[in-house]
Amino acid sequence: IPVDDTHLMSLTYESQAARTASPIDKEPIATVHDVKCCWDGCGIPLPSISMRSIHVHLGRHHSTAFERPCSGKDRRRRGRCLWVGCKHRSDMLFSSVAKHICTRHLKVLTVQCRECGEEFSRGDSLDRH
């Protein structure tokens, strides 16, 4: 994934092995120490801006926002993003919320096209571009 070195939140990963792991297992080299959780006014400082760290924080402090469905085959927890200012209004899986926060709110995975300068919230979007 091409990364624009001048973009503050663009991140690189430590090894090719990290690229093949699931997205929640990828740990960025860069961290931002002054980022606070904006989930429904939480305000707790996040230890890092990695998806894993955000997923753990959500599980410890905000898991009640994601209820298991009452019936049906799909028993995974779903809920809405309560990050201040989020415009995403449909339910999402609890397992997907950390990636949503990283890409939409913190712009952690933002990459820039070297040819036209357009920014994308994820590398796969850049690949399609």
Strands, helices and their partners?
Elements (H helix, E strand, L loop, with lengths): L15 H5 L30 H11 L16 E2 L12 E2 H12 L5 E2 L6 E2 L2 H6 L1
Antiparallel strand pairs: 1-2, 3-4
Description:
The chain has 129 residues and is mainly α. The chain has helices spanning 16-20, 51-61, 94-105, 123-128; strands at residues 78-79, 92-93, 111-112, 119-120. The strands form two sheets. Strands 1-2 form a two-stranded antiparallel ribbon. β3 and β4 (119-120) form a beta hairpin. The two termini are 13 Å apart. 18% of the residues are buried. The model is unreliable at 1-31 (pLDDT under 50).
Structural class: mainly alpha
The count of DSSP E runs of length 2 or more, i.e. the number of strands, is 4
Rg:
15 Å
- Please count the helical segments: 4
SSE succession: HHEEHEEH
Question: How would you sum up the global shape?
Answer: globular
Strand content: 5-15%
| Distance between the amino and carboxyl termini | 13 Å
Unreliable parts: 1-31
Strand order of the largest sheet: 1-2
Please summarize what this structure is.
The chain has 129 residues and is mainly α. It is 26% helix and 6% strand.
Features:
mainly alpha; two-stranded antiparallel sheet; 4 helices; disordered N terminus
